[in-house]
Write a structure and sequence with these properties.
homodimer, 190 residues, alpha+beta, Jelly Rolls, 4-stranded antiparallel sheet, globular, DNA-binding
Chain lengths: 190, 190
Amino acid sequence: MEKPDIIALLSKHIRISDEMATLITEYSQIKSLPRETTILREGQRATECFFILQGCMKKYYLQDGEDKITKFYTEGEVITPASYTNQEPSKYYISTIEETIVSFGDPNSENEIYKTHPKLESLTRKLGEIFMVKTNNEFDNWVSHNPEDRYLNLVKNRPDLIQRIPQYDIANYLGIRPESLSRIRKRLAK
Amino acid sequence: MEKPDIIALLSKHIRISDEMATLITEYSQIKSLPRETTILREGQRATECFFILQGCMKKYYLQDGEDKITKFYTEGEVITPASYTNQEPSKYYISTIEETIVSFGDPNSENEIYKTHPKLESLTRKLGEIFMVKTNNEFDNWVSHNPEDRYLNLVKNRPDLIQRIPQYDIANYLGIRPESLSRIRKRLAK
DNA sequence: TTTACTTCTTAACTTAAGTCAATGAGAATG
DNA sequence: CATTCTCATTGACTTAAGTTAAGAAGTAAA
């Protein structure tokens, strides 16, 4: 399989020097996951973290027998499961929605490469800070808007998700029932 | 002023070696901020990040003339304003609620110390990852619960906040009106 | 101590989401 | 072509939060 352009996707977030680009390209491991593949289940410990090169995934909890989606991930996004970081059993599931191509890493090779290439750890720290800002903005945006505004926001900023993902999953993610999303769409259609 | 125990607070999150402890204690700058002090305003660029040693702060947006609180910070929590990381004008305000003692850093001295002590950058990366997990958990917990559950959760996990912070600020943070919080408390009293 | 102010509570009414049930539209299957 | 299944929509009714206004309780100020 041809390697998708990991450097181009990373460069959207942070400036990558040629030296780093070579290093990353050399060390990156890539694999493809079929659609509807669950890569992490509740109770499991994650052994890998991911960077999405192509495709779409979701994170969801099983609450009272129902899925609760809290995040969609698409191209250029990093998935570092909590259980990868803290080595505790996961509280949530992660599954692909479409066929998804990812770059992945594990703790051993991560630490190994940081030891030999401290500049990469520095890059990772900075990238982590950038994603932290994004995550915080997302949180703030969420808690300060109602479902209708959140839907409008999604339509505006992530029109791809509206296309790719069935409406009942969108509603689930927005924190409402499919019936309510229907009504919101009807209200907005005017 | 006597230095509060920064090492003890950091150790709640991550193991700190004696070597790192000495380094952190030596380099940490500490100051006290009076109550109701706004340390960052919308439109400003943050020049400092903070680690709370004692006290309480809040982050809030000014939306349609009304405050919208999205986060309270207390002892042991890190405040890295988005505008500190990306050097863009801040979209939100940060203020103290009580008198607050903080350890603070600026980009120059941060980069300087990372250059001479790469182990500290490694520690910072790990700490950042730990806070990322906490932030993600908070987000998930938020979006998957209703106001009543969020209030119960706060009472259970952050009883200190219920004591320290006026009810209208708690309601604001919970995403509801003070009247609704009153009703929730009444419902629960039964 | 009287007054003003702040915070919380209560009540009546409105609005939007939840729930349950029925229907419609399209795609997949026999 | 008819049948089945999935997903989205609609309607009727319930529940909880928003809104507006009024009052209660406590604290600070005059």
